[in-house]
Amino acid sequence: MSAIKNKYRKYSIKFKRKIVQFLSWLFSKCLNRDDNMIYFESFLGRQYSDNPRAIYEYINKEYPEYKCYWGMDSRFFSKFDDLGLNTVPKISIKGLYIIAKSKYWVTNSRVPLWVTKPSDTIYLQTWHGTPLKKLAIDMDDENIPDRWNRPIPYKEAFSLESDRWDYMISPNKYSTEIFKRCFNFNNAMLETGYPRNDYLTTSNNQEHIDEIKQKLGLPLDKKIILYAPTWRDYKHYELELDLQRMQEEIGDDYYIIFRLHYLVLTTNDISEDNSFIKNVSSYNEISELYLISDLLITDYSSVFFDYAILKRPMIFYCYDLEEYKNDLRGFYFDFEKDAPGPIVQTEDELIKAIKNSDEQKVSKGFGDQFTSLEDGYATKRVVERMLNKKNQ
């Protein structure tokens, strides 16, 4: 019976996709683009966040004549409530209409290939991080969850997708070189810094930090640890921490906020909060979490490149370092040598590193290489280029 259900589900998904593909093609051929319409999407329509959010808010303020729409995954509808946005379910008649009508697309992940891109649409790919581990065409394996039901191989899909990007944002020279190769990208690279990071430069003050802490219900009298592990290709995520022991060791001085990678948001069953740790995986804007945290704990996630802008301590909790490094994606640089903080592999080492974290500093060389463009004006540079407003 389960085999029959799986077969039915497979054909149902395929049939629905064909309908969406046809409607998208039809709208793209029958509709004229609206030069003042922009379609935004962040993390597959799951969030109002990241580079697309920064670009949207800048355009909304500086160029209010533009009509902006946000595509959303219907499963995450509640996250868009009360934001005052023009939202559309991205896989719907209205969503496909808006996508086809918009002169500009702005996204930090990808628009599916079965959504037709009109030839006169300008597609800005912002991406969502400085690459640490191998991406796309550079990956040795194509280990992507079957539930995505991809109709073509992962690497081939990425090459076809990147051909549709008119612009791509890069936060630094290091990323530019990698993006061009791993995405097989041959169009205009905007090496501007990341729009989302303007906020870390312009809003880094104690009053604002306390406002965010109060909004999240976090203690003002304890240091905040942001724990942000990456998505592991090879297994569902499990929290590799003994929370009771951690609380006994550091709970008097620290409070942990925990954020999962966006690709596992739908599989996580960790409780929202308790007296020592709060799950903030559904919180829209990770930049605000950077700003309120005194210490970052991560592993192979590229979040540390952005966090380095704040020049605060970082710890790399890599309990599966050898397995991850040797068997999966690999790394673009010598992670063990160049990580801007201590790498620990056991809980004992982690606790010790937390207690000694006040002594850590991000090296000037690391900052010069990866964060030198983050001056608070990246969004302005990107928007002027995309909308051709440079000389206006």
From TrEMBL:
Where in the cell? Cell membrane
What name is this protein filed under?
Answer: CDP-glycerol glycerophosphotransferase family protein
**GO MF entry, a single one:** CDP-glycerol glycerophosphotransferase activity
User: Which family does this protein fall into?
Assistant: Belongs to the CDP-glycerol glycerophosphotransferase family.
Q: Which Pfam families match?
A: Glyphos_transf (PF04464)
Its keywords, alphabetically, are: Cell membrane, Membrane, Teichoic acid biosynthesis, Transferase
GO BP terms in the entry = teichoic acid biosynthetic process
Please indicate if the UniProt record lists Cell membrane as a keyword. yes
Topology within the bilayer:
Peripheral membrane protein
Show the GO cellular component annotation of the record.
Answer: plasma membrane
Q: Which residues form the signal peptide?
A: none
Q: Which organism is it from?
A: Vagococcus coleopterorum
The family database entries (InterPro entries) matched by this protein are listed as:
Glycerophosphate_synth, TagF_C, TagF_N, Teichoic_Acid_Biosynth
